[in-house]
């Protein structure tokens, strides 16, 4: 009996070690595997929500929002301290002109005139980043990270695009493209806010 108890404890300990050694669980969104958690700036971020952006009937990209803790309200997300990540995986080819135009239209739609004026230099810096890329191909991954004390960092397939863009207000303006009061896609907004699974 004592031997069985020791064997049971050893088996339980081995099970825990095995579970801890496993990579983060992945969810499938639009055919793209997304991790439940990612590491950014020495912090684990949780998948808050994810969905597919459609243009007419075509899938354009899968987008995921990672935060230090799950939130369902825009105001709570904007107030969160720590790093954040938007992860965009292309589901079709798109030119950098079209991508840049989509970002700019989104910023114009979700920001008021005062914010657009205040963030003009950062917006121009973002536009210059898109000019560095001839286009995005199906399967390409664009990450847009907020790093506290550093700024917004964009990477394409892991390679940094341009310099970091300072000002949390700029990153928040980017977030509002998808989860603000006037998003391009209200269904996608609901998915990113975790209101729809």
| C-alpha Rg (nearest Å) | 20 Å
Number of helices: 7
Flag low-confidence runs.
10-23
Oligomer: single chain
CATH architecture: 3-Layer(bba) Sandwich
Largest sheet: 7 strands, antiparallel
How much is the average pLDDT?
87
Task: Indicate how many domains the architecture comprises.
Answer: 1
Question: How are the strands ordered across the major sheet?
Answer: 3-4-5-6-9-10-11
Shape: globular
Estimate percent helicity. Answer: 25-40%
User: What class would the helix/strand composition place it in?
Assistant: alpha+beta
Keywords: Isomerase, Signal
Domain Chalcone isomerase: 26-194
Protein name: Chalcone isomerase-like protein
GO molecular function: intramolecular lyase activity
Describe the structure.
This protein has one domain: Chalcone isomerase (3-Layer(bba) Sandwich). Helix content is 40%, strand content 34%. It contains seven helices and eleven strands. It has a seven-stranded antiparallel beta sheet with strand order 3-4-5-6-9-10-11. It has a two-stranded antiparallel ribbon with strand order 1-2. It has a two-stranded antiparallel ribbon with strand order 7-8. Helix 3 crosses helix 6. The longest helix has 20 residues. The termini are far apart. About 7% of the residues have low confidence. It comes from Janthinobacterium psychrotolerans. This is Chalcone isomerase-like protein.
